[in-house]
Amino acid sequence: MTTMTDPPQESFRLSMLLNDTRYRSYTFQFIALIALISLIAYLGSNLVQNLRAAGLNISYEFLGEPAGYDINQRLIEYDSQSSHWRASIVGILNTLLVAFLACVTATILGVAAGVLRLSNNWLVRKLMAVYVEAFRNVPVLIWIIIIFTVMTAVLPGPRAFRGDDPAASMVLDMFAFTNRGVYVPAPEFTSGIFQGAGNWLVILASLVASLFITRWNVRRADQVQEATGQRPNTLWANLAIWFVPLVALCWIMGLTWNYPELKGFNFAGGWTIRGSLIALWFALAIYTGAFIAENVRAGIQAISKGQTEAAASLGLRPGRIMNLVILPQALRVIIPPLISQYLNITKNSSLAIAVGYMDITGTLGGITLNQTGRAIECVLLLMLFYLIISLSISAVMNIYNNAVKLKER
Amino acid sequence: MKKSVIFGALTVAGMAAAASVASAGTLDDVKARGKLNCGVTTGLVGFAAPDANGNWDGFDVGVCRAVAAAVLGDPAAVEFVPTTGKTRFTALASGEIDMLARNTTWTFSRDVDLKFEFVGVNYYDGQGFMVPKDLGVSSAKDLDGATVCIQTGTTTELNLADFFRSNGISYEPVPIETNAEAQQQYLAGACDVYTTDASGLAATRAAFEDPAGHVLLPEIVSKEPLGPLVRHGDNEWGDVVRWTLNALITAEELGVTSANVGELAGAAGDNPEVNRLLGTEGNLGEMLGLDADWAVKALAGGNYGEIFEKNIGENTPVGLARGLNAQWTEGGLLYSPPFR
C-alpha cells in the first residue's frame, strides 16, 4: 500500500541566488543597486573631502547677503542692496516671463505653419517647408545672436531721435523702436481707488468673470439649438460681456496712458521691452515653432483622409473641416510632443546670457555665483529650479492632454 | 539581467579609475607636463591677445612667459587658456590652469573666501568710464539715466552700483560677457557708457577705428590692483610665481635688462643683489626648487619696465603712462621685497 505524501518542500539554498531563475534577476539587481549607492556615496564623500581640503564648505548663507549688483529688467522691486535671494527671484520671474511669451508665440506660429505646410497652394507649402527646415537645423543660440545683432545694427540709437531734425522719429508719437529695445505707452490708473497692483487684479477678475459668463451664454445657445433647431446669435452679447465691464472699469479707475519720452540719455516713461528680451523671445518662438509645426503636421496626417472627404461631402468648407473635424482629432497626437517643446523652450531660455538677458541663469547662476564663488550651491539651486518648472509644466500639460485625448468607452 | 551585470562592472571599473587619481604639487605637475597652463583674458589688446599668427602677446602674457621660462627654461612652453570674467575662478580652482594672469583685482573675498592667493600686483589700476565725445559729457556724475555696458561677474560691476547709489543717480546696466562684445555694443550705440578698469578702456579704445572720438571721464571710482594669482595651499608654487614677478620688478630697479642680463650673469659682479638674483652668488634658485639661473631665463623676455613699454607703454597704441606703476624710486608704487 502506498501512501500519498506531499512533494518534498525544497529548502532555500544560497546557490539558488545564482542558479535559480526565480532569484537570479533579483540578485543581480541588488548587486547593481549596492554598486550604484556606493558610487554615489563615493562621489559625495569625494566632493566633501575635496571641499574640506580646499577649506570650503557648503553653505547657503550668501543668499541673505546684499547682492551689490543691479539688474536692468525687474518685475519686482530690486536694487543693489537687495539680497542674492531677491536677485534670484528677479531672475526666476524673468525666466518665466520669456518662457511664457515664447510658448504662446511658438504655439501660434507652429500651428499656422504646420497647417499651411499641408496647404494645396504650392508656394505656401514650399515657403513653410523652407521655414521649418531652416529653423530646425540651425542651433537656437545662433538664432538668438542673429536676431539680437540685427536689432542692434539696424535700429537707431536713442541719440538719433534727438535734435530739431532727428534722423529717426517715433511711430505715431507712441512707439519708439531703438537698438536698446522698444518703448511703448504704459497704462496707468490715476483715480487711486485701488492701490498699485490692485488695479490689475480687479481687471483680471473682471476678465475671468467675462470668460465664465460667455461660456454660459454659448452653452445656453447650444441648448436652445438642440431644443428648437434655431441657434440664437451669441456674437453681440459676448462682445458686450467682454468689453462693457472692461471699459467701465477703466473709466472708473481713471485710465491714462504714460507715453515714452526722450529724456537725457534714454527714453523715459512707458514700458520698455528690452532688445535682449525681444531677441530671446522671438528666437525661441520661431525656433521651437518650427518643431511644433512638424508635430502639428504629423498630427494632421495621422487622421485618415476619409475624415476630410466625409466632412467635405457634408458640404463643410475647408477651414471648418480643419477646425471642427481634423484638428480636434489630431490633438491627441499633437499634445504629447508639444509638452516636450514647452519644456525645451523653458530650458533653452537659459541661453539668455548670450544677449545679456537677466534670467535665473544670469543672476543666480551667473553674477551671484561669480561674486560669491559658491558654485556648487548655486548650481544645485539652479537644477532644483529647472526641475520644478519642468515637472510643473509637464503635470499641467498632462492634465490638459487627459482632457482632450480620445475617450474610449 | 545582462544589462545589470554590465552596469555593475562599469560601476566598479569607474570607482577604481577615480580612486587612482592622486595629486602632486603644481610645480612638479608643470615640470612633468613640460608646459605651463596659464589663464588669460579672451582678448584685450596690450594685455593679452593673440596676434595674426595666433601667438599670444601682451603685458599679462609676459608674466606667463616669464614663469614658464623660469620653471621650464622656455618662454614658449605656455598653453594659454582664454577665460572670461565668469569662468576664470572655476578654471583656476578646478586645476584647469596653473596660474591666472588676467587683469584680476586683488580683493579680500577672492583672497580669503574663494581661497586664492594673489602673488603680487603687476598693474595698479582704477575703474573709469568711456563715453563718445559727441555725447558732451565731462563728468561721470552727469551720467544720470545713462545705459552702461558692464562685464558681468567683475568687481567693476559692484563698484558701478556703489558709485551710482552713493551719488544718488540712476543708470541701466547692460550685462556683457566679454570685452569684445562690450566693444561691439558700445560702438553700435546700444549703451552710452562703457566702464571697466581704466587700462582696459585705454586698450579697448586703441582698437577703435576712431579713438579720438571717445573720451575717458576724469573720475576713477575704485582701486583695482591687478595681479597674477594661484590656488591657495600650494605654497611652493605660489612662491615660484610670486618671486618670478618680483624678479621682473627688481631687475628693472637694478638696471638688469634683456640686453645686459647675459653679460651680467656671466660672472659675479659688484652688486651682491644682482648676483643673488642672477644666481652667480647664493642658492636662491635651489630654495625655489629651480635652476640657479631661473631669473636669467625669466628675464630673457625683458624686465618689468621693458614688458610694460613694449605692450602698453606710451609708444604703443594703448599709450598708458607709467603713473602709479613706476618704480618706488621714481615716485610709483612698484616695490619688490629684496632678493636676500
UniProtKB/TrEMBL annotation, chain A:
Keywords noted in UniProt: Amino-acid transport, Cell membrane, Membrane, Transmembrane, Transmembrane helix, Transport
Membrane spanning stretches: 26-44, 92-118, 138-155, 192-214, 235-257, 277-300, 379-400
Gene3D superfamilies xrefs: MetI-like
Pfam families (UniProt xref): BPD_transp_1
Ranges of residues in domain ABC transmembrane type-1: 92-397
Principal location class: membrane
Cellular compartments annotated: Cell inner membrane; Cell membrane
InterPro entries on file: AA_ABC_transptr_permease_3TM, ArtM/GltK/GlnP/TcyL/YhdX-like, MetI-like, MetI-like_sf
Membrane topology reported for the UniProt record: Multi-pass membrane protein
Signal peptide (residue range): none
PANTHER family: AMINO-ACID ABC TRANSPORTER PERMEASE PROTEIN YHDX-RELATED (PTHR30614:SF37), MEMBRANE COMPONENT OF AMINO ACID ABC TRANSPORTER (PTHR30614)
Family classification: Belongs to the binding-protein-dependent transport system permease family. HisMQ subfamily.
Protein name stated in the entry: ABC transporter permease subunit
Species of origin: Roseovarius rhodophyticola
TrEMBL record, chain B:
Keywords: Signal, Transport
Pfam families reported for this sequence: SBP_bac_3
CDD domains according to UniProt: PBP2_BztA (cd13692)
Secretion signal span: 1-24
SMART domains named in the record: PBPb (SM00062)
Family the entry assigns: Belongs to the bacterial solute-binding protein 3 family.
Name of the protein this chain belongs to: Amino acid ABC transporter substrate-binding protein
